Amino acid sequence: GSIHPGYSHLTNFISDLGALDAPMPHVQRVNFFQFGTGVTALAWGLYLGMERPSRVVLVLQVIIGVGIFLSGIFPGHSNDPGSRETMLHNLVGIPAFLMIMLVPLVAGLRFRRSVAWQGLSAYSVSMTPVLVAMFVLMARADASPTGNPGLFQRLFLGIWLTWMVMIALRLYRLEARPRQAPHSRSSEVGL
Predict the structure, then answer these.
(1) With contact defined as beta carbons under 8 Å apart, do 8 and 150 qualify?
(2) Does 57 score more than 80 pLDDT?
(3) Running DSSP on this structure, what letter comes out for residue 144?
(4) pLDDT value at 189 more than 50
(5) Cα separation of 92 and 63, whole Å?
(6) pLDDT at residue 187 above 60?
(7) Three-class SS of residue 189?
(8) Which of 119, 172, 151 lies closest to 9 in space, CA to CA?
(9) Which of 76, 78, 71 is nearest to 35 (CA)?
(10) How many CB atoms neighbour CB 51 within 10 A?
(11) What secondary structure, in 3-state letters, does 31-55 show?
């Protein structure tokens, strides 16, 4: 925001940095592309890293990644919420925000059935009410002329990013574990 005169991390949304009327919108748009791609890659990694993969978790997380990526293709206007461009930006971004609130709950319920992931189950499930609260606070702040929607958006995304880091660390630990050789009957009988 330092290159965007008048931009406030408290009152402005992150997307305003990539808006059509922003001073250097390409920086935030590239961020949307990279981050959306990373979120989608993590979705695939989580799918492959679960003992019982969940297609629902995969689809929800991919919707988030694609929504973030498309937010860079469809930037809005920071000062014109009713413009066609802003409506397109919201059309691809809002489903991502909604899935962000849902994916920890669905994943957490799935983690309950997995020995390797059980430790993250309660934490994941508890993220949904916290994320919903931050989303409501963000929406209320956006509707208020004196609100700080940028603050609540950053809290919302920070909570979700913390959850994703926890998932990535668990995937890393699972991948780093020594693998046991497959058990075969021939080794038992000395063949």
Answers:
(1) yes
(2) yes
(3) S
(4) no
(5) 9
(6) no
(7) coil
(8) 151
(9) 71
(10) 12
(11) HHHHHHHHHHHHHHHHHHHCCCCCH
Distance separating alpha carbons of residues 161 and 103, to the nearest angstrom: 12
25 touches 76 (CB < 8 A): no
What average pLDDT is seen over the chain?
A: 90
Rounded to 5, what percent of the chain is helix, strand, coil?
70, 0, 30
Residue with token string 């919108």:
25
Is 175's pLDDT higher than 70?
yes
Phi, psi of 76 (to 5 degrees): -100, -165
Query: 3-class SS at 22?
Result: coil
Tokens of 126: 């508890």
Residue 188 has pLDDT above 60, yes or no: no
Here the tokens at position 131 are 């994320």
Pair of tokens at residue 98: 């909604």
Which alpha helices (H) appear in the chain, and where do they start and end?
Answer: 25-49, 55-73, 84-111, 121-143, 149-176, 185-188
Q: Phi first, then psi: what are they for 142, rounded to 5°?
A: -65, -30
Distance in angstroms (rounded) separating the CA atoms of residues 57 and 43: 8
Q: Which residue has the tokens 């880091």?
A: 165
Q: Which residue has the higher pLDDT, 88 or 185?
A: 88
pLDDT surpasses 80 at 150: yes
Q: How far apart are the C-alpha atoms of 25 and 65, rounded to whole Å?
A: 20
Q: Of how many residues is the chain composed?
A: 191
